[in-house]
Design the sequence.
């Protein structure tokens, strides 16, 4: 399992990235993350929705209810222009950390003691 | 099959959250759909609906944590959308509801509410008065800007009998100190001069606060000159500074500067007014209306003479530099005297911080009566205890009445109130009551202030000085009491289980009942200790009043004669007075019981039969031959002085039994006693008579060895006259008329000895009156609480009483039944209080050399009184309940 702190930190980029692919709803987002990480990242429902609402408050997302033809009413979220900008920033930040770590771990196997 | 219905489970879950305002319907819809999706998926994977529901709930996260997350977003949303106002107005609405509920409740229960408020108000008022007093006492001499830098020099002299401390030090000290120690910034002498008469062009008053000081006093103390210049005001021997009060007394609206005042004591001295100052504030350890230069004193006695050890009379005050180390300086000072005065080998100096003088210094030659630190602690303690008793009332009545509030708590909880809300609600109610009580208490305190001032002998005002501090203390005490008294009921009430109280299953918690009883016991323990205390005090005072003093004090008056260095015309006074009808006898002496030492110091004496080097200290009284007779001392051996024996006036002694014991004589009459002063033999006298021990000083002090010497009195002579009880007023008037012809420059000062004797116990009486007051209040508050509890119990047991009466119980039976519970508590308190009271009062009695035994009688009386008061309090309610018609109480069954 991935540590709690890292899961918490990755919530926002995950949400923004998934919604950048297209509008979605809470349960679907959780499922996507679950599938993408092979079950390594488990979000509790109680933390996902408040975060979605909080991002909506900050105008990164907007939400709307959609009546499906053959299914229940669901609340969908999609990115706003501001949300796309925020995603770009997030991406840059994660990548720079990622690259830095890669440089350290690099081609030579310095991770294991010689 | 399984009784699980998914829709019901989800509906229940939804309802549990719907009371929380942070979850909107929209939020719940969203969450519910999420759960449905998740459960559908799990069921598809083959799980049962129940298992799927449980798992979905589990992935929801911890109950509290989810709420917290939603709450965070909720507030964020409010802020963003400018809806904060709505939320606040919602809170206000809730507050209004709380307030309305509180007021309704208070209104419905007027008697307990009144008991609470009045009890708390009395307790708070006591505290306010005491706080004022304490703040005032600790503020002494703090008004000097450099108060912490100012010290007073104390001279301690060591003798084989112990160390005596005095404020009268060498007059050369200030110069010596400033020149020796760089840490001493300024030093000034201060000395109280004689009482005498000031005369400004015919306007005459007798003044008792005439002081002399160095000009540097202005650098040490904060003295505010309204007129004149601090640099020059005390420059010359005839300069004089008046306070504004004195200036008005002598000059009215005229400008006093440059005016001449004549001062008469041993002679007439002319002074010129060089300054007018504000009077020193009340919280100063010294006050003077007239201040002249120390140069005046040196002019009278001669500068060279005043520098010698024999002329030690000035008190020295120092101001240290800011960075000075007072403790180190005090240590260095110790042996300063030894180096400069050959006579001072046994004398040392130490420093006394100025702000501590009032409460911590009690030297024999203080300028004014110092404060009493023990009283300060005592009063503070009693104030807190009274407040505690009032707080207990509050807690007890609130928890006892909780039955009535239980349903409200249940309904509020069902409607979504959580425990925190309820705690705030009940704490708020407590604060509301405390606030009301506080306002009432301020009113009480303002009304009681004059009486309190008379009791403590101060001139305090509730909103006088230190307003900010006092206001802060006021609010602080209010909050503290509110929280203290309110927190227990708040936590107790808010813990009710709604399902139980709403079903009517409301068991009075045994624990809370026990606690309530315990608190009542505590209240009465405190009250009974105080009650026993005042009874013991009463007993001691009665004892002191009845104690045979060893002389007949009634109809004995004494007159103060002018103090002169030359022998006065005392014999003339004496014969003039003796000739008056109504005057039975007149004598003169250097001392009168109750008015301080009859002679400055004691004589070392050596009696026949003692070891050659042994010395006994005996207090001499210089008196006319008929002193013992006039006072009414009774002789146990020998005879009084007599004109038939001319040698009596030079060679004889009359002594008291204590002196005989000190000398170790068995057959004292005829024995020789040699008097020594500073090691030199002065005279050898023969004992001709022994008088029974008599109380010269107060009953606090043991009887000292004394001897009477038949000598002309030169200094501070008192004329003592025994008057006839008949036509006393006429005699007094006659004395008043005759006096001006005897001592035209000296006003008649006539005092009844009984008044002086009473004055010795002013402090004891003051303490007794205050204790009576506090005890009364403590008892009243405790009884108020008991009354409230009794009325509550009677109300609770109305039906029981009805049934008992129907079954044949008599009124006394029922009344007893209802009262005994409370009387048991008072009895328990009594048992607890006895040892406490015994301990405390034994300690107090130790301050008297002559005291009563506490004895069991006091405690029996205390117990009877306490029970009686409790019985009266509880009895009314019990009898009322017992008399009620059972038909009425049972009708609604």
Sequence:
């Amino acid at each position: 399992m991935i540590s709690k702190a890292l899961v918490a930190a990755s919530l926002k980029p995950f949400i923004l990235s998934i919604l950048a692919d297209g509008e979605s709803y809470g349960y679907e987002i959780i499922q996507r993350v679950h599938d993408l990480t092979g079950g390594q990242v488990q979000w509790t429902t109680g933390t996902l929705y408040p975060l979605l609402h909080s991002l909506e408050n900050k105008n990164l997302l907007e939400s709307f209810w959609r009546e499906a033809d053959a299914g229940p009413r669901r609340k969908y979220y999609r990115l706003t222009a501001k949300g796309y900008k925020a995603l770009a920033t997030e991406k840059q930040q994660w990548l720079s950390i990622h690259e830095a770590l890669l440089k350290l771990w690099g081609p030579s196997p310095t991770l294991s003691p010689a | 099959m399984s009784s699980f219905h998914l829709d019901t489970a989800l509906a229940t879950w939804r309802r549990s959250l719907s009371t929380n305002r942070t979850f909107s319907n929209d939020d719940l819809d969203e969450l519910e759909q999420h759960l449905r999706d998740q459960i559908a998926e799990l069921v598809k994977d083959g799980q049962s609906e129940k298992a799927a529901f449980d798992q979905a709930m589990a992935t929801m996260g911890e109950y509290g944590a989810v709420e917290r997350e939603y709450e965070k977003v909720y507030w964020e949303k409010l802020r963003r959308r400018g809806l904060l106002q709505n939320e606040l107005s919602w809170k206000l609405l809730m507050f209004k509801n709380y307030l309305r509920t509180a007021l309704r409740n208070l209104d419905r229960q007027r008697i307990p509410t009144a008991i609470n408020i009045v009890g708390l108000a009395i307790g708070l008022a006591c505290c306010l008065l005491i706080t004022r007093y304490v703040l005032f006492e600790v503020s002494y001499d703090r008004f000097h800007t450099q108060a912490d830098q100012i010290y007073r020099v104390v001279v301690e002299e060591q003798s084989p009998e112990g160390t005596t401390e005095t404020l009268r030090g060498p007059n050369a000290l200030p110069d010596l100190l400033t020149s020796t120690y760089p840490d001493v910034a300024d030093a000034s002498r201060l000395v109280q001069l004689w009482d005498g008469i000031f005369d400004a062009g015919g306007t005459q008053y007798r003044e008792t606060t005439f002081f002399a000081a160095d000009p540097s006093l202005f650098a040490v103390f904060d003295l505010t000159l309204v007129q004149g210049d601090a640099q020059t005001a005390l420059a010359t021997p005839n300069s004089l500074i008046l306070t504004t009060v004195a200036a008005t007394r002598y000059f009215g609206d005229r400008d006093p500067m440059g005016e001449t005042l004549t001062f008469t004591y041993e002679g007439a001295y002319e002074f010129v007014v060089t300054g007018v100052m504000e009077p020193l504030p009340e919280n100063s350890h010294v006050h003077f209306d007239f201040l002249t230069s120390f140069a005046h004193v040196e002019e009278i006695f001669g500068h060279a003479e005043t520098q010698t050890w024999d002329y030690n009379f000035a008190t020295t005050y120092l101001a240290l530099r800011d960075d000075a180390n007072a403790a180190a300086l005090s240590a260095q000072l110790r042996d300063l005297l030894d180096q400069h005065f050959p006579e001072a080998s046994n004398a040392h100096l130490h420093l006394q911080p100025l702000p501590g003088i009032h409460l911590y210094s009690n030297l024999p030659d203080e300028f004014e009566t110092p404060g009493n630190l023990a009283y300060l602690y005592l009063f503070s303690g009693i104030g807190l205890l009274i407040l505690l008793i009032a707080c207990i009332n509050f807690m007890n009545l609130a928890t006892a009445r909780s039955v009535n509030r239980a349903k409200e708590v249940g309904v509020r909880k069902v409607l979504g109130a959580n425990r925190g809300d309820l705690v705030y609600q009940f704490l708020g109610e407590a604060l509301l009551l405390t606030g009301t009580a506080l306002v009432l208490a301020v009113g009480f305190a303002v009304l009681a202030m004059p009486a309190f001032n008379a009791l403590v002998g101060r001139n305090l005002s509730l909103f006088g000085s230190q307003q900010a501090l006092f206001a802060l203390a006021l609010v602080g005490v209010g909050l503290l009491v509110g929280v203290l008294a309110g927190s227990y009921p708040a936590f107790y009430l808010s813990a009710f289980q709604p399902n139980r109280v709403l079903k009517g299953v409301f068991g009075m918690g045994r624990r809370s009942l026990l606690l309530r009883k315990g608190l009542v016991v505590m209240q009465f323990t405190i009250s009974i200790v105080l009650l026993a205390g005042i009874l013991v005090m009463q007993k001691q005072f009665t004892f002191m009043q009845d104690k045979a003093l060893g002389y007949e004090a009634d109809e004995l008056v004494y007159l103060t004669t002018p103090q002169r260095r030359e022998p006065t015309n005392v014999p003339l006074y004496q014969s003039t007075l003796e000739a008056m009808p109504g005057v039975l006898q007149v004598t003169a002496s250097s001392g009168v019981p109750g008015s301080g030492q009859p002679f400055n110091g004691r004589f070392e004496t050596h009696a026949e039969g003692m070891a050659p080097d042994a010395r006994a200290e005996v207090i001499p009284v210089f008196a006319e031959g008929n002193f013992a007779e006039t006072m009414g001392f009774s002789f146990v051996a020998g005879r009084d002085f007599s004109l038939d024996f001319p040698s009596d006036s030079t060679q004889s002694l009359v002594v008291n039994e204590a002196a005989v014991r000190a000398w170790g004589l068995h057959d004292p009459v005829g024995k020789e006693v040699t008097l020594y002063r500073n090691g030199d033999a002065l005279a050898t006298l023969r004992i001709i008579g022994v008088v029974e021990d008599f109380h010269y000083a107060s009953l606090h002090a043991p009887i000292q060895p004394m001897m009477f010497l038949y000598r002309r009195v030169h200094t501070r002579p008192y004329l003592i006259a025994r008057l006839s009880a008949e036509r006393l007023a006429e005699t007094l008037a006659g004395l008043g008329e005759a006096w001006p012809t005897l001592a035209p420059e000296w006003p008649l000062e006539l005092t009844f000895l009984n008044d002086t004797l009473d004055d010795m116990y002013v402090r004891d009486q003051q303490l007794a009156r205050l204790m009576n007051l506090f005890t009364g209040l403590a008892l009243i508050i405790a009884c108020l609480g008991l009354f409230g509890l009794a009325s509550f119990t009677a109300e609770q047991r109305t039906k029981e009483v009805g049934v008992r009466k129907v079954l044949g119980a008599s009124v006394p039976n029922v009344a007893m039944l209802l009262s005994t519970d409370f009387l048991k508590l008072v009895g328990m308190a009594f048992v607890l209080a006895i040892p406490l009271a015994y301990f405390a009062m034994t300690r107090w009695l130790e301050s008297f050399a002559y005291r009563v035994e506490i004895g069991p009688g006091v405690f029996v009386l205390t117990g009877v009184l306490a029970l009686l008061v409790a019985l009266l309090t509880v009895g009314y309610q019990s009898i009322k309940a017992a008399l009620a018609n059972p038909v009425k109480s049972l009708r609604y069954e």
Q: What stands out?
A: The mean pLDDT of chain B is 84. The two ends of chain B are 46 Å apart (CA to CA).
